[in-house]
Amino acid sequence: MQTKIISLLPAATEIVCALGLEANLVGRSHECDFPETIKQLPICSEANFPDGLSSAAIDIKVKEILADALSVYSVKREVVKQLAPDVVITQAQCEVCAVSLTEVEEALENYLDKEARIISLQPNSLADIFNDIKTVADGLNVAEAGNNLLEELNERVDIIRHKLKFIENKPTVACIEWLEPLMLSGNWVPDLVSIAGGTSILTKTGQHSPYVQWDDIRLQDPDILVVMPCGFPVHRTLKEIDLLLQLPGFNELKAVKNNRVYIADGNQYFNRPGPRIVDSIEILSEIINPKQFSFGYEGEGWIKFAL
Known about the structure:
The protein has 307 residues and is of the alpha/beta class. It contains 13 helices and twelve strands. The protein has helices spanning 10-18, 55-67, 77-83, 101-108, 126-139, 143-163, 189-195, 214-220, 234-240, 242-245, 254-257, 266-270, 277-288, and strands spanning 5-7, 25-28, 45-47, 73-75, 87-91, 117-121, 172-178, 183-184, 199-200, 224-227, 261-264, 302-304. Strands 7, 8, 9, 10, 11 and 12 form a six-stranded mixed beta sheet that branches. A four-stranded parallel beta sheet has the order 2-1-5-6, sandwiched between helices.
């Protein structure tokens, strides 16, 4: 009998599909939107705040919800009950990114007519993301497909490493994860920047994305600025880019003077710890080392911002 899977995490949905198990998916989160074919699946979660809020309003609302010990997202328990999954995949990495492990455990406890297994992911680095792919593959009894997928992903990473082997100049890069208040991209993003030939500023691999003061970024004066807000496609970031442009001394930054300000799709790429994290490395490679790389993401995965 076919294992029925609900994925409550966009990255997990992509992992399941990349492992050849899309047909096993019976439900998804409200944020799962890739590949396109999964959009017809029943939605099993919802956000506890309205759409269309500004960056500042989202930040305030999320902090209010968490301060009250509530969840930013809820599981649609009736939908889950009807779907009767064998496996539910969620995460314990970030309460702001997706349905929390606690919320899923509470939703499943005494609610299903049968036992459902939970696979919980908690990636903090690129190595963790690859380990999570193996965890999902092993947990769904497709270890060989997992090994094949990881081999393919590692080969793509190795191509970039090899091409940059003898390049000593590693420009400093500020990856902005949120515009108001300002945050820089932590967790796995410093790994991605390093592989792509840059040096991430004010962040450390494996550590959560930090809130930063604008003056700290100004003091670092990065060579390259990549704006990739969590959950925002390029067009959504463009609506709020003025928050950055009007900061004191913005035009004096080295990155701005040298026309090296970029906007990347944080929603589809950088904030999804699944197979397309390697696409994210390729995007950064195009941005940081345009003479060495052209994978074809420009215009869709990222744009150069014309100041």
